[in-house]
Amino acid sequence: MEDLIIIGAGGSSQQIAEAIEDINLREPRWNFLGYLDDDPAKLVQTIGGARVLGPIATATRYAARFVIGIASARDPGRRKMVFEKIGLDRSRFATIIHPSANISRHATIGAGTAILQNVVITQNTVVGDHVLILHNVSIGHDAKIEDFVTLSPAAVVTGFSHLRAGAYIGAGSAINNGCVVNDNAVVGLGAVVVKDVPPATTVVGNPACPLARALRVQVAR
Ligand SMILES: CC(C)(COP(=O)(O)OP(=O)(O)OC[C@H]1O[C@@H](n2cnc3c(N)ncnc32)[C@H](O)[C@@H]1OP(=O)(O)O)[C@@H](O)C(=O)NCCC(=O)NCCS
Q1: Ligand 1 centroid to 59 CA: how many Å?
Q2: Residue 104 neighbours by CB distance under 10 Å
Q3: Which residues contact 100 (CB under 8 A, 6 or more apart)?
Q4: 102 CA distance to ligand 1 centroid (A)?
Q5: Which is the catalytic residue, given 106, 130, 135, 141?
Q6: From ligand 1's centre to the CA of 188, what distance in Å?
Q7: Range(s) of the domain holding residue 36
Q8: Residue nearest to atom 15 of ligand 1 (CA)
Q9: Which has the closest alpha carbon to 12: 132, 192, 96, 144?
Q10: For the chain, how many structural domains are there in total?
Q11: Which pLDDT tens digit goes with each residue over 35-61?
């Protein structure tokens, strides 16, 4: 068994920890040492039986492998920032795939990526490094999911869609065939994306449009 540490001790990280437990129940694979987190309130805590070992900067002291579980719609670039700050080599990151996920043998999945319960990834899809794919996400054929993308529960990404680096896709949203969600853009909860989303822009609604514009329309009504 290999030692494994999760960076960040929030909700997504705890879901990854449970996926690790489920993997180990099938076949012992990971010796989960605990979490690293910069929140002083969490440092003294045990979460679901696992310790918060110390701040994130201590990662380089461990010979373990890592997954970064940090995800936030308010700061979609944060996981990349943490990755760059700790400066560990790609080979030090583990790929975690929950046993219930259904992944095409013709898909590729990167390092540091975590795929949780009941995710479906169909053929020719390319998933990059440090991608978080939460439960019940469905990804259609030939989609391209770049590094540091987050897919929240039950998001639907249809064929040939392209999610660029750091995009955050909200729960229950849908991305139409071939649409591009550009770098660090945020697709809000339940949004239906039918055209490309510009970089670092938050879109909401059906059809999805930039949040500021959606609110102006609401006020006008
Ligand atoms: C889109 C989002 C990022 C906006 O967050 P925010 O900038 O903090 O915005 P606020 O919550 O302050 O809301 C601002 C306004 O946008 C509206 N709004 C927020 N999210 C919306 C959404 N998904 N669809 C439609 N309108 C939305 C709010 O009603 C509010 O309108 P008001 O000013 O008329 O009251 C956020 O609401 C969201 O959808 N996050 C994704 C959540 C998610 O999927 N989590 C999964 C965790 S596992």
Answers
A1: 33
A2: 14
A3: 22, 117, 118
A4: 30
A5: 141
A6: 6
A7: 2-92
A8: 215
A9: 132
A10: 1
A11: 999 999 988 789 989 999 999 999 999
Residue 214 lies in a domain: no
Give the domain CATH number at 88. 3.40.50.20
Residues with CB under 6 A from ligand 1: 73, 134, 152-153, 170-171, 186, 188-191, 202, 204-205, 211, 215, 218
Q: Over its length of 221 residues, how does the chain's per-residue pLDDT go in tens digits?
A: 999 999 999 999 999 999 999 999 999 999 999 999 999 998 878 998 999 999 999 999 999 999 999 999 999 999 999 999 999 999 999 999 999 999 999 999 999 999 999 999 999 999 999 999 999 999 999 999 999 999 999 999 999 999 999 999 999 999 999 999 999 999 999 999 999 999 999 999 999 999 987 777 666 66
62, part of any domain: yes
**Which of 116, 117, 204, 206 to mutate to test ligand 1, by most ligand atoms within 8 A of the CB atom?**
204
**Which ligand 1 atom minimizes the distance to the CA of 173?**
44
The predicted structure's pLDDT at residue 43: 84
Q: Which residues of 169-202 are buried (b: 16+ CB within 10 A; e: fewer)?
A: bbbbbbbbeebbbbbbbbbbebbbbeeebeeebb
- Give first-to-last CA distance, the chain, whole Å: 60
Chain-centroid distance, C-alpha 101:
15
State yes or no: is 135 an active-site residue: no
State in Å: Cα 201 to ligand 1 middle: 13
Residue 45 in any domain: the answer is yes
pLDDT in tens, 107-124: 999 999 999 999 999 999
**Which atom belonging to ligand 1 lies closest to the Cα atom of 171?**
44
In a domain, 34, yes or no: yes
Cis peptide bond prior to 40, omega within 30° of 0: no
